[in-house]
Specification:
Main location: cytoplasm
Helix content: 25-40%
Strand content: 15-25%
Number of helices: 12
Bound molecules: shikimate-3-phosphate, phosphoenolpyruvate
CATH class of the largest domain: Alpha Beta
Function: Catalyzes the transfer of the enolpyruvyl moiety of phosphoenolpyruvate (PEP) to the 5-hydroxyl of shikimate-3-phosphate (S3P) to produce enolpyruvyl shikimate-3-phosphate and inorganic phosphate.
CATH architecture of the largest domain: Alpha-beta prism
Family: Belongs to the EPSP synthase family.
Distance between the termini: 9 Å
Shape: globular
Radius of gyration: 21 Å
Structural class: alpha/beta
Subunit structure: Monomer.
CATH superfamily of the largest domain: Enolpyruvate transferase domain
GO molecular function: 3-phosphoshikimate 1-carboxyvinyltransferase activity
Low-confidence stretches: none
Number of domains: 2
Length: 432
């Protein structure tokens, strides 16, 4: 992907594709429900398509036309043994949440993913599932993993060592199959889409402070789900509009669930001019139109409980920080090292290659902003968020930026380059 610095600001009204986390969960719960589930605004990105493929491989009737997905629910015990290993591609959410569901099945299964997935830690999910009675094996607890039938699971009380919505969700999903109550307590609030969606499918999920509990067995009722735009995708447009002078952009219909909206708090604390017009005030997954204008940004410290509320947005925040006056410190974010790539190392190296003044911490990074950035050759490491973060940096830098392995972008944001071009950016994908 080739990006040139823009000569004028980004302008216009746009919309980002559907929320990735909500799209995955809608397919999973729809597949396990009774009756039909219809999803609109579904993210037709590679990760969520992998989730659909896994459930089709287990016999579920799922039809998709663009962003509309129609699922004939198989019921909690209606999945069939897959004929081949389930393949999740690049999707950590798919493999971790599926481990919870597969642990409750009466058939054996094998689950695998791409080279990045094979390096990501699965013990954080497999260990608590084993406490429930699940039988999961794999070399070094890495994918490929084999799940053998275990008889009925037993509910547990589990204190998560790190705030992870994927681990929390895997345990709640396994809890649907377990005898007794499964309770999960997290150290800080992580995204709560699983809890919200389980309740909307009719499951009596209890929530108290940082604890969520479910008592098995449950019955899920199919329903209609409208997926809002993904704030994690909107993050790249927000930062681009803030750092490119003379920009004014409206992003319509973005999900602003408070467990996801830390990016807005941080960009505003940096001096970002962002207006949020909430459209739905009474629903559990609030949706808003967001207006953003170019702003003089200043450095901030990002740490503590806000980190899980913006974990996937840190690459975008690091780019905003490089264009801000003063120093930004990001810490308590060691989780970034075990995402699709080591995102701390990727951001430090890439920003340095563009002339930024950055240093790496064990659990984050320090960005001394305000240096004039120039275009550079950046390796995305096959990580969609790294590729998009540097596309945005390249738009505000002088000269040309080339991003290697940018074909990972549709993992979460199909149409990224096209949307940027419509807003006035000079972005070209290889082969265009
Ligand atoms: O549950 C989810 O949908 C996700 C949870 C987060 O991962 P962790 O649970 O590992 O923090 C996040 O980084 C990922 O993009 C999506
Ligand atoms: C970490 C991410 O996703 P996953 O864990 O599902 O691969 C992401 O989308 O930034």
């Amino acid at each position: 992907m080739r990006i040139r610095g823009v000569s004028s600001g980004l302008q216009g009204t746009t919309q980002v594709p559907g929320d990735k986390s909500i799209s995955h969960r809608a397919v999973m719960l729809g597949a396990l429900a009774q009756g039909e589930t219809v999803i609109t605004g579904f993210l037709a990105g590679e990760d969520c398509l992998a989730t659909i493929a896994c459930f089709r491989d287990m016999g579920v009737d799922i039809r998709r036309q663009d962003n509309r997905v129609q699922i004939q629910g198989a019921g909690l015990h209606g999945l069939q043994q897959p004929e081949q290993p389930l393949y999740v591609g690049n999707s950590g959410t798919t493999i971790r949440l599926l481990l919870g569901i597969l642990s409750g099945q009466v058939f054996p299964s094998v689950i695998n993913g791409d080279a990045s997935i094979q390096k990501r830690p699965m013990a954080r999910v497999a260990n608590p599932l084993r406490l429930m009675g699940a039988r999961i094996t794999g070399e070094g607890d890495l994918a490929p993993l084999t799940i053998s039938p275990a008889g009925t699971l037993t509910g547990i009380d589990y204190l998560l060592p790190v705030a992870s919505a994927q681990v929390k969700s895997a345990l709640l999903l396994a809890g649907m199959y377990a005898k007794g109550v499964t309770s999960v307590t997290e150290p800080a609030p992580s995204r709560d889409h699983t809890e919200i969606m389980l309740a909307s499918f009719g499951v009596a999920i209890k929530r108290q402070g940082l604890t969520a509990s479910v008592e098995g067995p449950v019955v899920l009722q199919g329903r209609e789900i409208a997926v809002p735009g993904d704030i994690s995708s909107a993050a790249f447009l927000l930062v681009a509009a803030l750092i490119i002078p003379d920009s004014e952009v409206v992003i319509r219909q973005v999900g602003i669930n408070p467990t996801r909206s830390g990016i807005i708090d941080v960009l505003r604390a940096m001096g970002g001019n962002i207006e949020v017009q909430q459209l739905t005030s009474n629903l559990a997954e609030p949706v808003a139109d967001i207006l953003v204008r170019s702003s003089e940004l200043r450095g901030v410290t990002v740490e503590g409980d806000i980190i899980p509320r913006l974990i996937d947005e840190i690459p975008a925040i690091a780019v905003a920080a490089a264009f801000a006056k003063g120093t930004t410190i990001i810490r308590d974010a060691a989780e970034l090292k075990v995402k699709e790539s080591n995102r701390i190392a990727a951001m430090v190296q890439g920003l340095m290659a563009m002339g930024g003044d950055v240093s790496e911490l064990d659990d984050g990074l320090v960005i001394r902003g305000g240096k004039a950035l120039h275009g550079a050759a950046i390796e995305s490491r096959g990580d969609h968020r790294i590729a998009m973060a540097f596309a945005v940096a390249g738009m505000a830098a002088c000269g040309e930026t080339n991003i290697g392995n940018e074909d990972c972008i549709p993992v979460s944001f199909p149409g990224f380059a096209e949307i940027l071009r419509q807003l006035g950016a000079n972005v070209q994908m290889d082969g265009e």
